[in-house]
Amino acid sequence: MRKLFPIILTCTILCSCAQPRVVDEVNMSQAIGYDILENDRIEGMFVIPIFQQEQMGKYQILSGTSSTTSDVQAAVSKKADKTVLLGQTRIVLFSEKIVHKIGMTELTDYLYREPQLGNRVLLVIVEGNVKNVINIKPPNSYVNIGIYLSNLINQQNETGNGPDTNLHLFLGDSLEDGGDAYLPIIKKRGKDVAVSGVALFHENKIVNKVQSKDMFVFKTLVQHHRRGVYKFKLNDKKKSDIVVESIRSGTKYDVSGSESHPSIRIKLKIKGQIKESMRSDNLTNRKMIKKIEQDMEADITKQATRLIKDFQKRNIDPLGLKEKFHAKNKRMTYERWKGMYPNMDIRVEAKTDILQTGVSE
């Protein structure tokens, strides 16, 4: 008991130092958005839930302007009835324009230092103005726009073609030499919002995008995953559309550490099931399944090779090949890597196994 007493006393002291906040006494933000105005001032928008027993999903959007992202929060709090806090923030939206104008390092520095924010908060790039997206009415009236958008990104990451990203992962990549990182892009389409691609960063700025049609291959190149959908055209007379749902996908990298003849062999392996086929053939026919596997392998190899060649041309490394090469050659510096990477021999090989056809045999 004597040994437990100091622990109990310490816990009591620590608990007494905390500052409890009653939800009704503060404006607890669940999403933040940033736009850049014509006078180069930053406009910040905070999605604040309104807690009422009879009205789930009700919320308000508080906005303000300042010259820095950190001061926007203070500017909004000055004209609000309650202090704006960030402890429940799930997602932060940045317009492409503000990223080009200011840079992600400056924009995320405040978020990284803010103790109220968790390191798993989602960062998202918006095509067009953030205000247009954040003012869309969610299709589900029981959630606010902040929860809806964070659910949209999480759903894409968990069951779709979106690669895993958050504040912690982004900063880990962007603070490396070169600062090659990536974030999802969303776009307003009519009354809806959709994921439109992946923004690729180099040295603090967006330098390129992965289009939505390439997202499955990109996700497979950067991480192992169990869900995702790949659509391609079969190499037949009708160019039939085939949709395959991934059951398990991943990539293996074989690296030669030689600086005189550097090379990387990338082996993608996809196990999946046919989700949809525009052919009338019986998909229980093993010969037909083999044809689908071979055509899918060729299509994925072609697409992955095209992406990687473009990365080399722009001297960007979102796949983290530098770290993989450095693991084989500890003497390799970033400057030497930049010189060899654009002309490095990088070859792709894809292997596809169709485990299920989606029909009864």
Beta-strand content: 25-35%
Ends: how far apart? 67 Å
Structural class: alpha/beta
The coarse silhouette is: globular
Assembly status: single chain
Which regions have little confidence, pLDDT < 50, spanning 5+ residues? 1-18
Number of domains: 2
Taking all Cα atoms into account, the compactness measure Rg is 24 Å
**Could you give the count of β-strands?**
14
Number of helices: 11
Strand order, biggest sheet?
4-3-2-6-7-8-9-10
Describe the largest sheet: 8 strands, mixed
Helix content estimate: 25-40%
Mean pLDDT comes to 89
Order of helices and strands: HEEEEHEEHHEHHHEEEHEEEHHHE
Summarize the helices and strands and which ones pair or pack:
Elements: H1 4-17, E1 27-28, E2 31-36, E3 42-49, E4 59-66, H2 69-79, E5 84-85, E6 91-95, H3 96-102, H4 104-113, E7 122-127, H5 130-134, H6 145-159, H7 167-174, E8 181-189, E9 192-202, E10 205-211, H8 215-222, E11 229-233, E12 241-256, E13 263-277, H9 286-314, H10 321-328, H11 334-340, E14 345-356
Parallel strand pairs: 1-5, 2-6, 6-7, 7-8, 13-14
Antiparallel strand pairs: 2-3, 3-4, 8-9, 9-10, 11-12, 12-13
Helix pairs in contact: 4-7
